[in-house]
Amino acid sequence: MKMFKMLKSFRAQEDGAVTVDWVVLTAAVVGLGAAALAMVSGGTEALTGKIATHLSGATIATSF
């Protein structure tokens, strides 16, 4: 009898459900961030190469 009461009380508690919701939402945000990074990384690498090429050809004047 005591076991059934304890099981019924455990099933009625909802504290852990909120934690699971937050874990799922956090995982979704991290997954979307990783997907966005994967989509943007190719263009970013190309732009970085163009900037490096431009800056390596630049000269710096050391006198006025």
Keywords:
single chain; 64 residues; mainly alpha; 2 helices; 83% helix; rod-shaped
How would you describe this structure to a colleague?
By secondary structure, this protein is mostly helical. Helix content is 83%, strand content 0%. It is built from 2 helices and no strands. It has helices at 2-12, 15-56. The radius of gyration is 28 Å and the shape is rod-shaped. It starts with a helix and ends in an 8-residue tail after the last helix.
Oligomer: single chain
From the spread of the alpha carbons, the general shape counts as rod-shaped
User: Low-confidence runs (pLDDT<50, min 5 residues)?
Assistant: none
Cα distance, first to last residue? 94 Å
Specify the structural class: mainly alpha
Biggest sheet layout: none
Mean pLDDT across all residues, rounded? 88
Q: What is the element string, with H for helices and E for strands? A: HH
How much strand? Answer: under 5%
Architecture blueprint of SSEs:
Layout: H1 2-12, H2 15-56
Brief overview, please?
The chain is an all-alpha fold and 64 residues long. The chain has helices spanning 2-12, 15-56.
